[in-house]
Write a structure and sequence with these properties.
It contains 5 helices and 2 strands; from the N terminus they run ββααααα. With 134 residues, it is mostly helical. It has a domain of 60 residues. Strands 1-2 form a two-stranded antiparallel ribbon. Helix 1 packs antiparallel against helix 3 and helix 3 runs antiparallel to helix 5. The longest helix is centred in the middle third of the chain and has 35 residues. It is rod-shaped, with a radius of gyration of 24 Å. The protein starts with 5 loop residues before the first strand and ends with a helix.
């Protein structure tokens, strides 16, 4: 929800009060899907671990239980791939929306001929990139 993040820019038209702008974009849906699926996968893994360890005889005797376990695992695997792809696209959109050159281009004060605007630092996205790889 980048649209909720304000940032200030100076106003060079004689007023001393800075102008408040907001970032553009809402990329929360892919991130929420990714995290929700991760939580469900964790809960299913804990339930399966209890089933394997505590009720091993039930798992061995019932022929449908291993097939059902396999089908649920395949579904979770497919959805994990979809969630990782969605989060990867969402992350690339976040990077594009927060790129310093994009922010400078949106500032009216930087469009003047005598004004030179430079970005302070580039956002660190290393941990976000690792979250997609996992």
């Amino acid at each position: 929800r980048l649209y909720q993040i304000p940032f200030e820019m100076p106003d060079c038209e004689g007023t001393s009060e800075p102008q408040t702008l907001h970032l553009v974009g809402d990329f929360s849906a892919p991130a929420e899907f990714f995290v929700t699926l991760g939580v469900f996968c964790f809960l299913y893994a804990m339930a399966a671990l209890v089933l394997y360890l505590r009720f091993h005889s039930l798992y061995g005797e019932n022929k449908r239980l291993p097939i059902a376990d396999f089908c649920v695992t395949v579904c979770f695997t497919f959805f994990w791939l979809v969630a990782a792809a969605a989060w990867g696209k969402g992350l690339s959109d976040v990077k594009a929306a927060t790129r310093p050159s994009s922010l400078i281009a949106a500032m009216a004060v930087c469009q003047g001929g005598e004004v030179v605007c430079t970005a302070g630092t580039t956002p660190a996205m290393g941990l976000a990139n690792i979250s997609v790889v996992r």
